[in-house]
């Protein structure tokens, strides 16, 4: 492999890619907030790869058309983000097990034969981050309490059940959404171990838990803190917030102050990107402190 001169953000110093450049990107609507071009751009620079990872702003009504065009355009594949993950799920030719279970695709790889392979690496990213931040934690170590019932919660719950968590307690402000998620998981064979806890009784879901995960938007900059008193949570429980702006949410600060081991959310974003990068560009990338700083600066 010939190293090419790249800026850290993935742009070539001489402003040009070679004719052999490998191309991938991230498709979403809107896409301007996405940190993925910066993340993959850093890795392209770090590993000296002749390639590009571009933002693809695609409106939902044109997403199927855009996804189907990837092989014809010579794309190696792309990431898919909100609100297009379900459309991608319905559009690709083949699904991996994680995508099938989540009903959503976040990584598309164009296979040798031109077929679109859809995967979902959000659960992988969640688990890899947790294991990197808190190596003592194991999925089998006890019940997990998951707050929220959106797309992120779906990925987290599937990953936890697949990894062997004995019991997942699902708490959501709108109970019906949590029940719908539990029913969807049952429909794909993940029916053991999920219980729905009412929002008004949410504190009881913390009793004896080994893991607490916030998948809601609460605690994000500009949003109020997650309204969840922690007094019933064992101090041994790992607390993970998938929010990463700010890096230390009020939930993580409170958990840390009372002695709980904590894990931030940015690692989930970084780790979920690894399988796609490997598939498109042929290198297994590493998540490092330098990468984390670079992605957060942008
Ligand atoms: P994503 O797909 O990224 O997970 P989402 O589908 O918008 O995002 O889900 C956001 C989650 O945050 C939901 O679980 C939502 O609860 P509802 O289903 O009741 O809407 C939760 N959420 C948002 N605002 C909240 C609030 N003020 N208090 C508690 N939960 C909240």
Can you offer a commentary on this structure?
The protein is an alpha/beta fold and 298 residues long. It folds into two domains: 22-121 and 268-297, Leucine Dehydrogenase, chain A, domain 1 (Rossmann fold, 3-Layer(aba) Sandwich); 138-260, NAD(P)-binding Rossmann-like Domain (Rossmann fold). Helix content is 37%, strand content 17%. It has eleven helices and twelve strands. It has helices at 36-47, 60-73, 85-91, 97-102, 122-133, 151-163, 175-187, 250-257, 266-272, 274-281, 289-297; strands at residues 22-28, 51-57, 77-80, 94-95, 107-110, 116-119, 144-147, 168-171, 194-197, 211-214, 238-241, 262-263. The strands form two sheets. The chain has a six-stranded mixed beta sheet, with helices on both faces. It has a six-stranded parallel beta sheet with strand order 9-8-7-10-11-12, with helices on both faces. Helix 5 (122-133) crosses helix 6 and helix 5 (122-133) crosses helix 9 (266-272). The longest helix is centred in the N-terminal third of the chain and has 14 residues, at 60-73. It is globular. 2'-monophosphoadenosine-5'-diphosphate is lined by residues 148-153, 172-174, 177, 215-218.
CATH architecture of the largest domain: 3-Layer(aba) Sandwich
> What is the CA-CA span between the terminal residues?
29 Å
The low-pLDDT segments are: none
Largest sheet: 6 strands, mixed
Strand order of the largest sheet: 2-1-3-5-6-4
Q: What Rg do the Cα atoms give?
A: 20 Å
Order of helix and strand elements from N to C terminus: EHEHEHEHEEHEHEHEEEHEHHH
By DSSP (H or I, 4+ residues per run), the number of helices equals 11
Helicity range: 25-40%
CATH class of the largest domain: Alpha Beta
Outline type: globular
CATH superfamily of the largest domain: Leucine Dehydrogenase, chain A, domain 1
The portion of residues forming beta strands comes to 15-25%
Question: Could you report the average pLDDT, rounded to the nearest whole number?
Answer: 94
Active site: 85
Domain Quinate/shikimate 5-dehydrogenase/glutamyl-tRNA reductase: 143-187
GO molecular function, one term: shikimate 3-dehydrogenase (NADP+) activity
Keywords: Amino-acid biosynthesis, Aromatic amino acid biosynthesis, NADP, Oxidoreductase
